[in-house]
Amino acid sequence: MNPKAQPHPEPILSARNIVNRFGQQEVHDKISLDILRGEILGIAGGSGSGKSVLLKTLTGLHRPNGGEVLVDGKAIDKIGPAEKASLIGVLFQQGALFSSLSVAQNVMLPMREHTDLAPEARERIAAMKLELAGMSADTGVKFPSELSGGMVKRAAFARALALDPRILFLDEPTSDLDPLTASGIDALIRRLNESLGITVVIVTHDLTTLFTICRRIAILADKKITVGTLDKLMQSHQPWIREFLHGPRAEGALTARKQSHGNG
Q: Is residue 189 within 8 Å of residue 213, measured between CB atoms?
């Protein structure tokens, strides 16, 4: 199944010659990445490869030691908070909802911080975003502690979508979820991409997510990044990439991909 939101050749975000180091340890050595409009891009890599650091770099939450990130041709560190919030939505690992706020209040936070919308308008939009994330509007009165793991992730999706961002960054969106719930999150990501045309970047070690919904995959290994379609990456001779894509866990994900795509 091909996503309806076909990427435009022109990238919506470009990272150029990114260097990240911590003390004497270099994590990224002049890596470059183009994220295409309307695509779902997966980012994978082993422990210590700097997946989360790269996500923070791409979203402007971390300043690299070298290189630059451009969003629509504009340096991300030159973009103000309100404009950045309207361009980029982020779903953090574990959801990162505020426990003292209701679900609806969590969703309304970006609107309170970056817009002048009236309270009634914020409440109305929050209800719409919860519905978009597959939750009923009355879930908004609940607190995060009252939600299942899958529902916490969906509430975090609703908050990330609050300001209608053009790029959605997801940090391990299916972690700690059972396979059925994780499959529901994958379906939600695909639906948002197809219906809204939103560009999605997923940092994940979930092979099923990478194999079934990502148009391209970027793999971090040995301080470098390799980007391509799954079919192209399957032919790589880089040791970590080969083990990752041809190991026992990959077999089940490939089966899921064939079922999802109909003819493989």
A: yes
